[in-house]
Protein 1
Amino acid sequence: MNNIILKLQFYMDYPFVRYALIVGTLIALCSSLLGVTLVLKRFSFIGDGLSHVAFGAMAVATIFKLANDTIFVMPVTIATAVLLLRTGQNTKIKGDAAIAMLSVGSLAIGYLIMNLFSTSANISGDVCSTLFGSTSILTLTKGEVWICVIMSILVVALFCFFYNKIFTVTFDEGFAKATGTNADGYNLLIAVVTAVIIVLAMNLVGSLLISALVIFPALSAMRIIQNFKGVVICSAVISVGCAAVGMLISILFSTPVGSTIVAADIVVFFGSCAIGKIVRR
């Protein structure tokens, strides 16, 4: 145990480790806030669909050798979120079908582009890193950390400022429209903020594991807490805790960052299920 503590203290002296922990916990916090709303609206897989779109956009950005691929990936993912919301309201293409169509199509096209045009000698390694997370979270610059901090503050501020409206739209969209609330506008806000979180989380857990970061903390909190505000707070605590623990374990034992965080979320979920059953009894 002393060796682990000494090893952790040694790593914490490096700025890149501190940067990774700051960014990871901020991303986990933002994911948990929107995760509760997405789960309750039964729109959990929007994160999965948008993450695959972000993968396709990242593949295109890599081919054009953009210095900062976020400049290209972020607008494309946000535009897709808007398109997905509009398409989901079409009676011919339901929301789940639109998500599946965009998800599979973007993933396939992104992989095809990387194979056809990539100059990398290790295409399989690049694809695997993008899909399941990579060590890029440990090579963040101070500028990238500040971008993440600013975007995270913006996401949290928007959620807190529009909390009552988001609560209303989440539980009874029909009632919200009847009382004059611009439900479509707030749904659009949720979709755009979700897209921003997806792009920020790409380097942390990879495009295939982002949905777990959004869904598991919310589901874990719902097993213990029965009111919306309590679930949101509990979900945020669980998400940040799992992200921090997962990243520390990854640094200490050289395990994949994204997979370790998701594994921590899974353990907490089963623990929450057990606690929920005990409490109900």
Protein 2
Amino acid sequence: MNQTILQRNNVNISGKGNQYMIFAPGFGCNQSMWRMIASEFEKDYRVVLFDYVGTGNSDLQAYNKERYSDLSGYVQDVLDICEAIDAHNAIFVGHSVGSMIGILASIREPKRFERLVLIGPSPCYENKLPDYYGGFSKEDLTGLIDLMEKNFAGWANYLASAVMQNPDRPLLAAELEISFCSIQPDIARLFAVATFFADNRKDLPLVPVPALILQSNEDVIAPVKVGEYVHQSMPQSTYKLMKATGHCPHMSHPEETIQLIHEFLGILIVKDKS
């Protein structure tokens, strides 16, 4: 294994089994956000957790503004990790922008992935009316970036509450806010621009492997219409509208998330044998 890559992205591998299961965080998140569900798969898979460069406990010295000015740098992070651990036919579980990073990685190197699990994916956050509803106007997104520049702590507090929802469980939003604030503001801003102004709609029909779309019932970041659009645009997708609310069901509703992933993997195993 390439220890340089593993250290750069703070890669941690656990569990049994021969097949890798790679968990990719969403924007502003680190690998600890997977703790409520990742351990449930350790008995059957080699679970891989990592941080994007510039987040979590990654090697900050490896951060390069040019590389990470759009999502391709983060896609390369994932492919570098796959090469370092010699992953083939892996299960990829991505949250939010991590879903899109996994989609792009699977298109570039299909041999690395067998299936994708996409939690709250959005190929484009900006409304492109009348043909596409992403949930945000261009002014909304520009305002979010402006707030980051003027009041980073206020931005983190606002976005954490909007992302997590579930106001009856404030500790979840507080954890997300702490994660946001742990990232250097200039790095967070560039990642935010790369995330919220991306438009990957044209890539959805190119996904070469089966995918599960987990869509929260109430999600202001990736609304139901977006999840439906992703499903309609991907040729081998399975769509599940969850009872969960908020953009982080793997944290707020881990039991439902685990059950739906198990069902998806089990159904595909049966199909493969027939």
